[in-house]
Design brief:
Elements (H helix, E strand, L loop, with lengths): L5 H11 L20 H15 L7 E8 L4 E6 L11 H13 L6 E6 L2 E3 L2 E3 L2 E5 L7 H12 L5 E3 L2 E4 L34 E7 L9 E5 L5 E5 L2 E3 L9 E7 L2 E7 L1 E3 L5 E6 L3 H15 L3 E2 L3 E3 L7 E7 L3 H10 L3 H15 L6 H14 L23 H13 L4 H6 L2 E2 L19 E8 L2 E9 L5 E9 L5 H16 L14 E3 L2 E3 L1
Helix pairs in contact: 2-11, 3-6, 3-7, 4-5, 6-7, 7-8
Length: 512
């Protein structure tokens, strides 16, 4: 009960209204307009950059979200649809990690109906791929060594390649506008090797007029080299060097033409292959020979028959490690292999891209989005018909951040600004840039940058910048993004003075 004296009555009134003076409580927020001036300044600075950059017609979608305070500090067209380019790979990565975990392994298996007598396998040897995107040179040697150490020194039969775990091989239907030998257009296949690419080295000949020296890796019969280039004595040449891949019946032709100045350094080119199944089987047979295992038969296509015995089950490195190659270097092949493999495992064989997209839609539904709010047609983002919003990117990043079972692997797969991957040459002059972890995205007239960063006072953010209808150069677009991120790194909220204990003057004195 409140006492009756004037002073005590006043004290009771003050105590009754104490909640109005609780620490951190304010009717107007951090200032009279209800917003931290640092946020206002950040918004104005970003708007200023976007207003004066890339000329007219640029479509911008952006959102910056504080993970620590669950607060949006900037958004622009964040609920509008944009082509994300390779930012799609983050959705594929998160979905895969959620589905199978970071320690998931892909398989390549060897089977036979034959018998092993001593060190001789009498019968055909089947190699079946299950979508492993990481079956590169080192892993192929491990697979070969596992067979050799059974021990086997001879295979009296054929090498039969089985790629039936996927629905065919090749590029996606939605990639029809992209044609060529570039590595980023490598076809997918359940049985694949070295990202379905070949490396071509070209160096000048000894004297002007000589053919340049050409080395291909791997050096197998599947490739035929046609060298029409010439070594010149001058660095000035009107005809530049062209290295191309032409698909032929039963093999790929590597065509080199143009001029190679005598004093230039050796150059390296990456080209895709047209027949992953035959390419992989050819490499497998060559590696067996180099390991001392002779194969008497030929390379054929086929299926592992019922009753075949499993001889070797080769496992890939863990998914968490594979995702680093996917996102740091924006590898389209890896993304599509993962998508089809999970489709085969969870929806049914053979794995298809369409079924993989259904898995992505399931994940989007978990994030709170219905199928009519976005469009996804592949796992890599190479198709321009993919459409997502900055809001959806932020929802993905926040979801991954909140799940410790996948977040360490998810963020470690992103590029470190100025340090590695596709952003190694961006903002490398700023030490603070290492506090930015990102996935890039680039297509004609499209540039994207999304990920996480830590601001000057240690606050953690998720962000997404999606640029469409870009009419300036890719370099100008990335500099625009980098300029925004430089400002983001400097973001610092205004410090608020600690709340003091309320003191009320009463009757010429202080009432405490």
């Amino acid at each position: 009960m409140c006492l009756t004296s004037i002073k005590k009555q006043f004290l009771c009134t003050v105590l009754g209204l104490t909640f109005l003076w609780a620490p951190g409580f304010s009717f107007a927020g951090d200032n009279e307009f209800g917003e931290d001036p640092a946020i206002t300044n950040f918004r104005n600075a970003v708007d200023s950059i976007l207003t004066r950059s890339c000329h007219k017609g640029l479509r911008v979608g952006a959102k910056f979200y504080s993970l620590d305070r669950q607060q949006v500090i900037y958004e622009r067209n964040s609920d509008s649809l944009f082509t994300p380019a390779s930012n799609m790979k983050m959705f594929t990565s998160a979905m895969a990690l959620k589905k199978v975990g970071p320690d998931y392994r892909f398989h390549t298996r060897l089977y036979t109906l034959g018998k092993i007598t001593g060190t001789v396998l009498k019968g055909d040897l089947y190699i079946k791929g299950f979508g492993d995107p990481s079956l590169v040179t080192e892993q192929m040697w491990i697979l070969v060594n596992e067979l050799k150490n059974l021990p086997i020194t001879k295979v009296e039969g054929n090498i039969i390649a089985d790629n039936s775990y996927f629905d065919g091989q090749g590029t996606l239907k939605t990639w029809t506008s992209y044609k060529g030998p570039e590595a980023y257009l490598a076809p997918i296949g359940a049985l694949s090797f070295n990202f379905n690419t070949v490396t071509v080295y070209v160096e000048p000949g000894k004297n002007p007029g000589d053919r340049p020296r050409v080395v291909i890796d791997p050096d197998i019969d599947y490739f035929r080299v046609r060298n029409k280039a010439i070594t010149t004595g001058s660095k000035r040449s009107r005809r530049k060097l062209i290295v191309n891949r032409l698909g032929r019946k039963g093999h790929d032709e590597i065509l080199i033409k143009g001029r190679v100045p005598k004093n230039v350094a050796r150059k390296r080119f990456f080209l895709n292959v047209t027949d992953p199944q035959k390419y992989t089987a050819s490499v497998f047979k060559r590696f067996l020979a180099q390991a001392g295992v002779r194969v008497t038969g030929k390379i054929k296509r086929g299926f592992v028959p019922e009753g075949a015995r499993l001889v070797v089950d080769h496992e890939s490195p863990p998914l968490g490690r594979i995702l680093r190659g996917l996102n740091k270097f924006s590898n389209n092949f890896i993304a599509e292999q993962i998508l089809r493999t999970l489709a085969a495992q969870f929806i049914g064989e053979p794995g298809t891209t369409e079924n993989g997209v259904l898995l992505l839609q399931e994940y989007m539904q978990e994030l709170g989005f219905t199928a009519d709010q976005y469009r996804m047609v592949d796992g890599s983002g190479l198709s321009k018909t993919n459409l997502i919003t900055p809001d959806q990117v932020i929802a993905l990043l926040e979801d991954a951040h909140s799940d410790l079972s996948i977040f360490p692997e998810f963020i470690s797969a992103l590029g470190v600004m100025g340090l590695d991957g596709s952003v190694i040459d961006r903002m490398h002059h700023k030490k603070e840039a290492h506090k930015i972890r990102v996935k890039t995205g680039t297509l004609n007239h499209v540039s994207a940058l999304s990920g996480y960063f830590q601001s000057q006072d240690g606050e953690r953010f998720a962000f997404s910048i999606l640029l469409n209808d870009v009419r300036c150069s890719n370099g100008t677009a990335t500099r625009l993004e980098d300029e925004i991120m430089e400002i983001a790194l400097k973001f610092q909220r205004e410090e608020t003075a600690e709340e003091e204990e309320p003191q009320i003057q009463f009757g010429g004195g202080i009432l405490k």
